[in-house]
Amino acid sequence: MARALDIDLLRSFASVAETGALSRAAGRIGRSQAALSMQMKRLEELVGQPLLTRTGRGVVLTVQGERLLLHARRILSAHDDALAELSGGSLTGSLRFGCPDDYAQAFLPTLLRGFAQHHPAAAIEVICAATPRLQAQFDRGGLDLALVSVPLDAERTVLRRENLVWVGTRDATPLWSDPVPLALGDPDTLDHRAALTALDRVGRGYRIAYASGSLSGLLAVVRSGQAIAVLTRSAVPADLRILTPAGGLPALGRIGVTLRIDERHATPLARAFAKHVEAILPTA
């Protein structure tokens, strides 16, 4: 009779691998440690290889165990995705989603409202920050997925392309004198770098009147009429206006928007939200 990998055995094995101890894994999956130990023995007999090595601090995977873990994660991911999609069931759980402030104002209400209609029991914690901070949190494992800005020439796959634009008050002077007063994000953000590069390219003088990672702070400065800012076109508030090249300001170019997710460790909820973002986020 052909052998088959049992989903419950693989899920228990993945829990043992992630926690590094039978006792912690047993608590996570709601089984006794003795029952979990029997499951691991059955799995080893099924694959014909030793998968775990007991140590004084818990268990570690053998080389064969590491290889099986890669397969187990893919199998469990496909199984859970298929079950959720075909059953039409609502997903539960929580996830941490990183989103830059400008995209949060432009797209987040629609994204969250649409997802909640299909998965009302899911809890989504939204963290808003500049892309470099979100990328750092994602790299440390602090975010399940993150929407980030990227240079178009540095990323092959983007969900959306955004124009960067100069923004000022509706009654802003049509021709800014040198040096141009700027309200910009942190120095490592794309808006900051794009503004300085563009002005240097055409030889325009400038001064940074205000720099902050807070979009609300930047907008407050712009609304005061003391400086102009760089935003993505979709994030320009209705009470401000896009400044045209007629004011002597150089073109800023475009950036990309992409979604970061660790496919190896993503939960069914995180993958479902990623698919939702990819389907809903308007392209440009």
In terms of structural class, how would the helical and strand content be classed? alpha/beta
Beta percentage is 15-25%
Task: State the low-pLDDT regions, or none.
Answer: none
Work out the helicity level: 40-55%
Count up the helices.
9
Distance between the first and last residues' Cα: 54 Å
CATH topology of the largest domain: D-Maltodextrin-Binding Protein, domain 2
Q: Write down the Rg.
A: 25 Å
CATH class designation of the largest domain = Alpha Beta
Roughly what is the average pLDDT, rounded to an integer?
87
Biggest sheet, open or closed, and with what strands and sense?
9 strands, mixed
Supply database-style keywords.
single chain; 284 residues; alpha/beta; D-Maltodextrin-Binding Protein, domain 2; two-stranded antiparallel sheet; elongated
Please describe what this structure looks like:
It is built from 9 helices and 11 strands. The protein has 284 residues and is an alpha/beta fold. The strands form 2 sheets. Strands 3, 4, 5, 6, 7, 8, 9, 10 and 11 form a 9-stranded mixed β-sheet that branches. It has a two-stranded antiparallel sheet with strand order 1-2. Helix 1 packs across helix 2 (22-29), helix 1 packs across helix 4 and helix 2 (22-29) crosses helix 3 (33-47). The protein starts with 6 loop residues before the first helix and ends with a helix.
